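Before the break, one more example. Copy the sequence into your notebook; we will annotate it together after we see the structure.
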Amino acid sequence: MVSVLIIGSGGREHAIGLALAKSNQNPSLYFAPGNAGTATLGTNVPIEATSISELVTFAKQNSISITLVGPEDPLVMGIVDRFEQENLAIIGPNKLGAQLEGSKKWAKQLMTKYNIPTAGYRCFTNFDDAATFVTHHDTFPIVIKANGLAAGKGVTIAETKASALTALKECLVNQKFKDAGLEVIIEDFLEGDEASIFAFTDSKTIRPMLAAQDHKAIGDGDTGPNTGGMGAYCPTPLVTPELYEKVNETIFKPLLAGLQKEGIHYKGIIYAGLMISKEGDVSIVEFNVRFGDPETQVVLPLLETDLVSIFQAIYNETLADITLKWSAESAVCVVLASGGYPNNYEKGKVISGLTTTNQESIIHAGTKQENKSIVTSGGRVLGVVSKAPQLTNAITTAYQCVNDISFENMVYRSDIGKKAARYN
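Here is what the structure looks like once it is written out:
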């Protein structure tokens, strides 16, 4: 009997659980800590994602076959190293490999060393030095990033010198992001359209997945502040077959070769955040060391290869024997968020309409069971996912489902997936 422990509590983890549940191996699923949606797929375990010792104990006591890490924090903390010390099967990079996301400086140095295309950059730990650099900089906008993990909030696109100096001061003087912001990366601004491609790797072989496109801004037409993602669709016509091959040859293969040369045994997921220029040039905006959210919600529903078998092949380093098969359909995910998100948001709002829709198309993110009701407990609450042979049909169906669901001050974009039309 195969049992899988999925660490995390968001929409990504629910989507991973749904994909695993389709396996003909009929796995028993455990989620730590999970949410109201994952509770319908398996067993929620009241252990936080960063409580590594407790997770190790649970995996041993419950004879977990394999563990999958959803969020970045436990990976950067070294959860994989701990599990491996206990001879427990786990999918994810070790602490050294997790620096690809945990330290932007480290990732930039790796990309430079192995000729992986990315924006030019400088690193600073001293405010006066950074301010001098910005003051003498001629072209704006520029991008200022906290070096470490800052919960997705450590990036500023500075349109002016004044806003750049403010961002530097927040990191280096006011220490808004604590240790994560004690060093900053100042990057050249890349122009173009963004796309995301995940890849599976077992340290020897790398297998890219379908290309998706996220919608970061809170408002229609990409207006308002950035969020963790207000929706996504897959595949995106922005990434043509030729461009997909270019990404594989100039990014994924050199990255894997570079990790091997550095002696880093990387087994897990790599997320490539891409910027694609009008001329078709591709650059890396960032690498992540796990599945992204909400792109996972539209990529995995199109995967036809058994996900349990893929995870087993990654752990056993036999990924070369696996062929990824994909549906020819399109998928779209519309995120329903709490009032106030991405700033201070409301919680505890009763969600209605969940029982009147196709349960498998609703991904839970910030939800919890409270008595007989399911209530909001996060900024991004639900993701409504639809598949169809044509993207336009998937979009229509998703929004029909959105109309069935309600909670007080529910926020969502009405244009998810529509930018695909500009690439056709």
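The chain has four domains: 3-93, 126-182, 193-321, 330-423. The CA atoms of residues 2 and 27 lie 5 Å apart. Try to locate both features in your own notes.
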